[in-house]
Design goal:
The chain is α+β, with helices and mostly antiparallel strands. The protein has helices spanning 21-30, 37-57, 61-71, 95-107, 127-136, 141-161, 172-187, 191-204, 219-239, 255-259, 296-309, 324-330, 346-350, 353-363, 374-377, 380-386, 395-401, 444-455, 461-471; strands at residues 2-7, 115-116, 120-121, 266-271, 315-322, 389-393, 413-419, 424-429. The chain has 2 domains: 2-283, 2-methylcitrate dehydratase PrpD (Orthogonal Bundle), CATH 1.10.4100.10; 293-429, 2-methylcitrate dehydratase PrpD (60s Ribosomal Protein L30, Chain: A). It is built from 19 helices and 8 strands. The protein is globular and about 70 Å long. Its EC number is 4.2.1.79. Keywords: Lyase. It comes from Parafrankia irregularis.
Length: 502
């Protein structure tokens, strides 16, 4: 790996194109290095993971709306078009709109993969735009694997090196450039073209974190899909010779100078050297539970802690000692009253660890629909317990959250349960059970099991089998077989009949 120092340059300093971060990202994407076998296998796992969580969300209102919009945009004459989850494989739309519809379906339940470092991300959001372009242009499975691996590589590098959330910038500002780089790698574009697409994608996908603050709406699912859609459009423009603001990251009126650390900021972004394999996907991890990733380990802890408490009316207070990020984003440190509101949106409850921990304690389980239902959220004994749960930052958990050592890095907490008789129960967990270092790490069988659980009642068994048989052959798929990387209920879905502008 090569550590690249990234800082602000005054316009008079004339930072050369090949010294800019957008170019260095592009150079990695343009490098025709082979994809390692274990990386290709993990790409397959994440394609399966995305399809499973998309299946479970097909009937949800934001996904229906996005699919309706996509259906209004046919592919250009002479192009194959891209598939949309829920529709027959023969029904194709323009690739940027397939990236949009599929991206919303994948993101809606907050249930696919994650990577947390200086910032946070869901790297599986790179898959819908890369897949859509591959289908649209008739590319094969080998090219698709290369593009997805590159997207993950850039996403992880940016998330490791540049913190967005401390400046209230949403994490899709890293996704736009990574998706553009993944598409560039898929197409085998030269570094100059990819560089322009990366710069455009950064410029157009930088938004505020209000999408994950206060009342969290369906835009939380739409935001990554928006970044994927804009990445497809950015690559299209760059291929036609159109350029980007430059230096996109380092300019004196640019991203770092005004939206991140300011003119004196200095970041280190580590990227593979020429010829070095792209292995970052292996550092990422999926979710066993449909909730914000920092809650994954705490759901597992709650499942084992609940029986030790027994009668929850005995609880006087529960304090979760955890990292700065967990405390301030999904804990009581966010100072969002909505996180304790029984009438809050699903998206808001998904970002409330007091709510999630209360339900997981009482139910000994977590379900992507039942655990968020209005009846569940408003149950009086749950509301009573929920409002007894708070978080505090613990410096040691914050240090471990940011540790560069994978064996030490942790996303958990120490939990102290105070009972009305004055006794306490204490327990802790570092990583989720499904984490690579957890009690039950996810392997291929786990990904397939998760897919089948989420697809049950949505996809016929034969369609589940067909999709899985196609996905596990991903690196060998012919161009005409890439359409098989979609999922179709019986009967297939159609437009809902709602009307907008399109």
């Amino acid at each position: 790996m090569i550590d690249h120092q990234v800082r602000v340059y005054r316009s008079a300093e004339r930072l050369a194109s090949q010294e800019q971060l957008a170019w260095k990202i592009a150079a990695v994407a343009a490098d025709p290095v082979a994809v390692d076998g274990d990386v290709a296998e993990m790409v397959i796992n994440r394609v399966i993971d995305n399809a499973g969580v998309a299946a479970a969300s097909l009937a949800r209102r934001p996904v229906v709306a996005a699919r309706d919009q996509a259906l209004r945009h046919a592919p250009a004459p002479g192009r194959d078009g891209a598939t949309v989850f829920g529709l027959p494989a023969r029904d194709r739309v323009s690739p940027e709109w397939a990236a949009w519809a599929n991206g919303v379906a994948v993101r809606e339940l907050d249930f696919h993969d994650t990577y947390l470092a200086a910032d946070y991300s869901h790297p599986g959001d790179n898959i819908p735009p890369v897949l859509a372009v591959a289908q649209h242009l008739g590319l094969d499975g080998r090219a698709l694997v290369r593009g997805i691996a590159a997207g993950y590589e850039i996403q992880v590098a940016l998330v490791r090196g540049i913190c967005l959330h401390e400046h209230r910038i949403d994490h899709i500002a890293h996704l736009g450039p990574s998706a553009a780089a993944g598409i560039g790698a898929l197409l085998g574009l030269p570094a100059e073209t990819i560089c322009q697409a990366v710069g455009q994608a950064l410029h157009t996908t930088t938004t505020t974190r209000q999408s994950r603050k206060g009342t969290i709406s369906s835009w939380k699912a739409y935001a990554p899909a928006f970044a994927g859609k804009l990445a497809v459009e950015a690559v299209d423009r760059a291929m036609r010779g159109e350029g980007a603001p430059a230096p996109a990251y380092e300019g004196e009126d640019g991203f770092i100078a005004w939206l991140l650390g300011g003119p004196g900021a200095d970041y280190t972004v580590s990227l593979p050297a020429p010829g070095e394999a792209r292995r970052a996907i292996l550092e990422t991890y999926t979710k066993e539970h449909s909730a914000e990733y920092q809650s994954q380990a705490l759901i597992d802890l709650a499942r084992r802690l609940g029986p030790a408490i027994g009668d929850f009316s005995r609880v006087s207070a529960i304090v979760l000692h955890t990292s700065h990020h967990t405390h301030n984003v999904i804990g009581s440190g966010a100072n969002d009253p909505q996180k304790y509101d029984p009438t809050a949106t699903r998206e808001t409850l998904d970002h409330s660890i007091p709510y999630i921990f209360a339900v997981a304690l009482q139910d000994g389980d977590w379900h992507h629909e039942r655990s968020y239902s209005p009846d569940r959220a408003t149950r009086p004994d749950t509301v009573e317990l929920w409002r007894k749960i708070t978080t505090v930052e613990d410096e040691e958990w914050t240090r471990r959250y940011h540790s560069p050592d994978p064996a030490e890095k942790a996303f958990g907490a120490r939990v102290v349960v105070e009972l009305v008789d004055g006794t306490t129960i204490t327990d802790e967990i570092a990583v989720a059970d499904a984490h690579p270092l957890g009690a039950r790490p996810f392997g291929r069988d786990s990904y397939i099991g998760k897919f089948r659980r989420l697809a049950e009642g949505v996809l016929p068994a034969a369609e589940q089998d067909r999709f899985l048989d196609t996905a596990v052959r991903l690196p060998e798929l012919r161009p005409d077989e890439l359409a098989g990387l979609t999922i179709t209920p019986q009967p297939p879905l159609t437009a809902s009949g709602t009307e907008g502008i399109f």
